[in-house]
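Researcher: Next sequence.
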Amino acid sequence: MGVPYVGVSAIMAIPFLSQLTSRTPANPAYIPEITTGSDHVMSFSERVIHFSTCLLYLVLFNLVVDPTKELRAQHGLDSSIFCEDAELFLINTHFALDFPRPLLPNTRTVGGLTTGPGRPLAMEWIEFLESAGEDGVVLFSMGSYATGIDEGVAGLFAGAFAQLPQKVIWKLNGKPSATLTPNVKVVDWIPQNDLLGHPQIKAFVYHCGMNGVWEAVYHGVPMVAVPLFADQYDNAQRLVSRGMAVKVDITTLTSSELAQAIHTVISDPSYKSNATRISAILRDSPRTPTEEAVDWIEYVIRHDGAKHLRSAALDLNIFQYLLLDVIAVLLLAFITFMIILYCSCRLCFRGCKRLYSGSSKVKSE
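Model: Next structure:
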């Protein structure tokens, strides 16, 4: 249609996709790839595994996804399913939590779009929070996708909450198939950002979906990270790296381990201190994430796009971008030179050998 558009990511930047869609540099030596759960400081073996993962992603994308681009264009379908033609990229990240990395001028960070000061809570919530006393309340949610939970996992969570002196708000669509102790309140909806802003919330047990992570960071709430899939492992690692969360493995988790993890983040003051510090960094900005996003969208409208921010690398295919064609030519030139040098040396050696043999015969005669 020729209308400029802005690409928006609901998660943090995916390094290999950023390289392909906006040509953003992503060195796998220190920029963790999605689903790896890696930190930005890696051992040699971790870097080997991480590099192999990045290479696999790039190969699969170029072999499976990219070849369909021309076919989609022929049939009038959107040929830029990963926003390759976007004028601007808005990424749901902030370096208060994310690992530092290079970004191009047409990429802007707007992490925390759903965050903000907590609004006044309904009396029902106020009464429950205040009834918890000094022990406070633990907020537990597995996100909007957790529509149900099997009996074994429900029993695991219920068993952990039974060991806590705190009260628990459990966000769950449906009834848990487990016996609950009186300190647990099960609801199918919560005003999550508003609850996290209340001082009675002492810890947030969460699957690490991106929006909830930013809300917890904004309000400085320590977390127990229970990642389930996709980018959640990476989000959890960032929280652990910043010292504001404990990460647990749902596949091996027991009630006692979960209760101990919750106790740790509440009783150890370093977790709250780190959460408060990261919160201060996130908030320390002249513009809110929403204002920042609006500013740049209006910028694109005013200038009928943002071509001047676009990298020329986008006009290169993956072989040109990685200089594989240049490397191949230089390698061929080097091999050719070495062959010529070898042949020249061999001819010189043979000539010298013949000359030496001829002079030796003359002397002997």
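Model: The chain has three domains: 6-114+288-317, 123-283, 323-364. The longest helix spans residues 324-364.
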